[in-house]
Amino acid sequence: MKVFINNRFTLWKLLSICIAFLLSSCDKFLEEPVDGRTAISIISDMEKVLNSIHPLSDHHFTDLMTDDYMSKSIAGHVVRTVEEQLLPIFSLAITKESFPNSSFLLAGFNPNTAFRRYYYNIHNATFLLDRTNSFVPNNEIDTKKIQNIRSKALAIRAYSHFMLVNLFGPQYNETTSVTDLAMPYIDKYYPEAVVNFPRETVKKIYDGIESDLLTALELAPQSEENGLLEPFSFSRKAILALFSRFYLHKKDWDKCLKYSNELLVSRSAPLNVTGLRTASGNNHDKFSLDYFKPDNQAYIMMGNNTYQLIGYFFHGFYPDPIRAFISSYGADPSNNLFIQTSPLFNDFIPMKYLYFYSLDKRNMNMPIFTVDEVMFNKAESIIQKNNGPSDESSIILRKLMEAQQMRTPMINTRMQEFIESGSANAAILKVLDLKRVRFFSEGMRWFDMRRLGLPLSHKLPSGDEIIIDGKNPEDYVIKLPQEEISNNIGL
C-alpha cells in the first residue's frame, strides 16, 4: 500500500482483499499476485480478516521522543547504524521534516511504518464494512455475527484514525479544529486502483471517529462468546476504553466520565505491580511474564509487540531519566524495577521486559487499553470538572498508588502533595507523575506530553540540545512520510 500526500492525497488502494488473514504484514500482502487473492464473502473469512487487522503497538516509537530517555552514545557498545536510524525520532527531527522509509529500522519501530499499518487496517476494515452491507444473513445467528463483525471493523477504523490524528495532526482544540489540517479520513470503500483524498481537518476526523464508535458500541455484544479471546478482540469493553481516551483528548469531561464509569462497573482493579513482584520472588522471568499476562483483568485489550525493545539497550538511547524519576517518586523502594545489563557501560532495562530481552523471545503482547488508563482518565476529568483535587479523585489516585511498589509513608506524602496542589493544572501534573510511573516504557507518555503541551529537552550525541517549550502545538506533530509527498504528481 502506498500513500501520497500534499494538498491532495493520492492513495494506492488495495484492489481487493485476499487471504489477508494468512499474511503477516502489508508488504507481504502486496507481494501476492492479484489472481492469488480471493473475494471475502462468507462470515468465517470476514472473521479471519478481522484477526489480521487487530491493532498492534505501532505507537511505541514515541517513547524515545519523551523525557523518559536520554542519549548515551557509548563507543564500543552501540550499533552505530541502528543509533543513526533511531536518532531522527529521539531528536524530534520527525516533527520538523519528512523522512523516507530508508531512514528508519526495517523492524517497524518508526512513524512511517505506523502510518502505513494504520491505513492498511483502515482500508481492510472499510472493505469489511462494505462486504457486510451486501451480506444477506440466513438466520438470527448470522445476523448477530455480522453485527459483531461490523462493530469490530468500525472500532478498528476509529482506533486507527485516532492514532493517526494524534501522531500526524495537531492536538484537538475546539476553537482551531475546524481549520487545523491533519491526514486524510477514509470512511468509504473505493474499488478503484487510485483515489484522491484531501487532508482533512481535525474536527472532521474526530467527528468521524465518534460516529464510528457510537455505531460500534450499539452493535457490540455485551460480552465475547469466548472470554479468553476478549483481550485480543475489539470487545465492547475495549470500545468503552477507547471512548474514555477519545473524550479525554477532546476535553469533554462529562462524556469521558460516562464511558469510564460504564467500563469500570465491570472492571475496576488496576494492575497490581506490588502483588506481581511479591509473587515472583527473585524469579525475574516470572515477573516479566506475569506482568504482560493477557488474562490479567487489568488488561482490556492487548496487541502484538512491534517494539522489539530496540530503544532500551545497545543502541545509544536509555531509560535512565525515568529510572531516576521512579526512584525519586518512591515507586521502587527495593530497587527491583530495573536491571543492570552491563556494569561496564552502566546501562539498565526495565525488569518487566527482562524475559523478552533475548532476540528469540521478543515476540510479546503489549497492552493497548487497560483499567489503569481508564482510572487515570476518570481522575483527570473529575479534577477538571471540580477545578482542582477532590475526595473522589483522591480515592482513585490512592488506589492506583497502592497497586505500585510504594510504601505507605510515601503514598501518604504523595497524596498530601496532590491534595494541597490547589489548581486543576497543578493537580493534573501530580496525576501525570503517577501515570508516568505506571506506564513507563509502554508508549503512553508522549500522548500526555503533546496533549498538555509539556516541555521537553533532549541532549543529542553531538552535544546539541533540542528544546520544546510547550507553547507551539506544531512542535508535537510528526510530519508525513517523505514517500507520501515526493510521489504526489504535481507536487
Summarize the structure in words.
By secondary structure, this protein is mainly alpha-helical. The protein has 17 helices and eleven strands. It has helices at residues 26-31, 43-52, 80-90, 111-134, 140-168, 202-219, 236-250, 253-266, 273-280, 284-291, 320-329, 371-386, 391-402, 408-419, 424-438, 445-452, 482-486, and strands spanning 2-5, 8-12, 70-71, 194-198, 299-304, 317-318, 338-342, 347-350, 365-370, 456-459, 465-468. The protein has a three-stranded antiparallel sheet. Strands 3-6 form a two-stranded antiparallel ribbon. Strands 5-9 form a two-stranded antiparallel sheet. A hairpin with a 4-residue loop joins strand 7 and strand 8 (347-350). The longest helix is centred in the N-terminal third of the chain and has 29 residues, at 140-168. Mean pLDDT is 87; it is low at 1-37.
Contiguous runs where pLDDT drops below 50 for at least 5 residues = 1-37
Strand order of the largest sheet: 1-2-4
Shape: globular
How many distinct beta strands?
11
Q: In sequence order, what are the helices and strands, one letter per element?
A: EEHHEHHHEHHHHHEEHEEEHHHHHEEH
> How many H/I helices?
17
Strand content: 5-15%
Radius of gyration: 22 Å
Helical content (DSSP H or I, runs of 4+): 40-55%
Structural class label:
mainly alpha
Distance N to C terminus: 20 Å
Mean pLDDT: 87
Q: Main beta sheet, described?
A: 3 strands, antiparallel
